Hints:
A: alpha/beta, six-stranded mixed beta sheet, disordered N terminus, B: 11 helices
Amino acid sequence: MTSFGSEQIMTQIATAALEAAALGHHYGPLHVLRDVTFDVRGGEFVCIVGPSGVGKTTLLRCLSGLQRPSAGAVSFHGAQVAGPPRELALVFQDYSRSLLPWASVVDNVALPLRAAGMRKRAAAEAAKAALHEVGLGRADPSAYPWQLSGGMQQRVAIARALAYQPSIVLMDEPFASVDAQTRADLEDLVRRLQVDLGLTVLLVTHDIDEAVYLSDRIVALAGSPAGVAEIVEVGLGSARDQLDTKLLPRFAELRAYVYRLIRGARADQATGN
Amino acid sequence: MMRTARRWLYVSAIELWLPVLLAAAWWFASRDSASAYFPALRDILTSFRLDWLSSAGAQNLRPSLTVLAAGFGSAVVVGVAVGAVLGLNRGFERATRPLLELLRAVPGVALLPVFIALIGIGTDMKILLVASGAVWPILLNTIDGVRSTEPLLIDMAVSYGMGGGRRLRSIILPAAAPQIFAGARTALAISVIIMVVGETVGAQGGIGYFLLAAQRSFQITDMWATIIALGVLGYLLNLLFRLIEAVVLRWHRLYQARLGGPRR
């Protein structure tokens, strides 16, 4: 598929915020990733999409500096990543396990700031501002996270990432554990935050619709070990709407295209090609 | 507020009816006792008041409480510190596990002759004796608690640039706290037992000393009064412990209730 020339992408083509070069990873004899190369430009929304179990989480762990890849390199604004960069924040799929059950909502959000040496009151203020930003301005900040609904808990996790003031946010299947309506709300929230705050977002998902709806570019993973099947320019503009965008012919075309990319690679593999 | 008060009354009634009944039975059964070994409860309680609810009683209590506080306190500090180190180093923990299990299997009071030989019969010896007996449940529970910290929380902490010390303080120890507290509660009961045994050997004061002295000089009512004092002390210590636990682990109680898990 050829480029669809989005003006947004053209203006922000300047520098790569995050770059994976010939990334490979294996756990013992099990090869998970092979020769994964792509970049994420500053201010861009990129989705990595691939079937479950393809190695998306491993890829994200390598990209975020939590795991050293077996081969290749990751660089963040040109510098090679050896550990988690300061300007990078990670949001996990399983909010119920990534939030501290013994700390209040506001303390959870303030934790990275406190750890970075911010004073208690200033950290709490920043945490409350972030909670407001994700639509939890009216929620009780002294509640425990597990007293909130699933969608609200994931909002808390997103607020924690925002309060940390990253330039790039990496998200690992962030909406996979919530119901459909909450999922749509959270998608729009992340989309809005990305535009409003000028964030760079790299989101991993197995859901092709979600990838097309959210992103400026899609990195389609397929195969085993997984490699980049193709990088697809989405070009749906920066304003998205759950109904209108999904009714566009271009949306249907893209989801079919990405679907074939991922499934086609699977079929090839089954026949041994 | 009304409901809390009523619930408190209800719980107290459930907890108290049997002890009250037994005490009453004892009181009336022993009322006209002529036995030297089983004096009337009324006389025992009089001795209890004179021996323990007095300035002399406070004088006798002080060395015991000192040994208990210092011994249990050091067991908590050492148990949590060593437990955290071992819990975080899987290989080291595996290598030392058989040794730990062996040491734990040695009854705390069996070390009494060893410590007497090494450091005499002073307060230090008793503190060491209590600490060396009470440290094991705390140590082993801390290892387990630290090891079962949710790995995703560690990933989260690392991704937000938290260093090792910060992770220990803000993530690992709070996560292990419920298990540490469970170990500490067992350790507290052990501490009281070892304290009493330690004081029966060459001590100049303390509850254990008083107990043995009363028995040896055939002050049987004083002996029974001391045993009651020990029971009351153990009960009050456990109450204090549960109070602290209820405050520190408030989240855990609510969390367990929310998950519908077992409640303690």
